Amino acid sequence: MDEKLQATVSNVHDYWNTHTLGFQYVTDRSIKPGTPEFFAHIRPWMNPYKFPWIMERIDRESKLLKGKHLLEIGCGMGYDSLEFLKRSVHVTATDLTPNAVKMTLQHFEVEGVKAEDVRTANALELPFEDNTFDAVWSNGVLHATGDTRRAIAEARRVLKPGGRAIISHFYRKPSWMYTVNRLGRENIEYKEEDPPVNEFYTDEEVLDFFQGYKVVEAVHEHERLLRARRDGWKAFLYHNILMPTYNNFLPSSVALKYAYKISVTAIKI
Questions:
Q1: In sequence order, what E strands does the chain have?
Q2: CB of 250 within 8 A of CB of 223?
Q3: pLDDT, tens digit, for every residue of 71-127?
Q4: C-alpha distances in Å from residue 127, one per residue of 92, 142, 155, 215
Q5: Peptide bond preceding 48: is omega within 30 degrees of 0, i.e. cis?
Q6: pLDDT, averaged across the chain
Q7: DSSP assignment of 5-38
Q8: 3-268 architecture in CATH?
Q9: Measured distance CA(108)–CA(65) in Å, rounded
Q10: Is 208 a residue whose pLDDT tops 90?
Q11: Alpha-carbon distance 192 to 172, whole Å?
């Protein structure tokens, strides 16, 4: 890894170690982080519960992977891995940051589940042998690593031949969020500052990343605007003007064309 990419990874690490995804959804500051009340409090705003299509994908993939070994890249607080564990999939959960790993371990203890492993790992240099896993799951992570193509190649390396890469999701351009983000200068993740890397891609660019795979599904998602846990005048305009106008009057075919995300399921060949 060259010095420039190493510096980017370091910045990404520092950002996400400070901004562990989930804390921005806490509205009751009396709740102690890591407790059952904490994980229940933020749960509705977390992947995969916020997006019904993600839960549908977990249900689908779990039926294929029951008793097999899945690697999650970028586990956050462990909600996605938790759902796979509940469905009898053997899970290794990884994240770039120690704070996320700490929260995931606490979450699994609260839920009474046990992963095969929970550890820090860099998506661009995974600490696993070739041909180790039956599946790789990554939700909203690989486009924020600093080198998306390399991350997808690393996922392929650790997959067994015929293994499944289930990558939900990549940010799209053009899309409604790309326009809001660029023209409105609106942050996506945190109000005060966005991550150092948060790439948007065309569909063609995303599919080109999957060299050495057979793509079996590539779908547009998040075509309609969902509620955001924000406040202030921009949030008011979003919830009361943009969201009802966009959702109620834009034809489905147009909305799907400008969906915010594309998700890909591919098989290693």
A1: 69-73, 90-95, 117-120, 133-138, 159-172, 200-201, 213-221, 261-268
A2: no
A3: 999 999 999 999 999 999 999 999 999 999 999 999 999 999 999 999 999 999 999
A4: 12, 16, 11, 25
A5: yes
A6: 94
A7: HHHHHHHHHHHHHHS-TTGGG---TTSPTTSHHH
A8: 3-Layer(aba) Sandwich (3.40)
A9: 20
A10: yes
A11: 23
Contacts of 203 (CB under 8 A, 6+ apart): 172, 218, 262
pLDDT at residue 144 is higher than 80: yes
- Whether the model clears a pTM of 0.85, i.e. scores above it, the answer is yes
To which residue do tokens 């390399």 refer? 150
- pLDDT confidence of residue 228: 84
Question: Is there a contact between 250 and 143 (Cβ–Cβ < 8 Å)?
Answer: no
Rounded Cα distance between 180 and 97, Å, is 29
- Extract the tokens encoding 138: 């990554």
Res 191: pLDDT: 67
Name which of 76, 138, 80, 123 is nearest 104 in CA terms. Answer: 76
Higher pLDDT among residues 230 and 14, named by residue: 14
Cα–Cα distance for residue pair 166/70, rounded to 1 Å: 10
Helix (H/G/I), strand (E/B), else coil: 170:
strand
Name the 3-class secondary structure at 75: coil
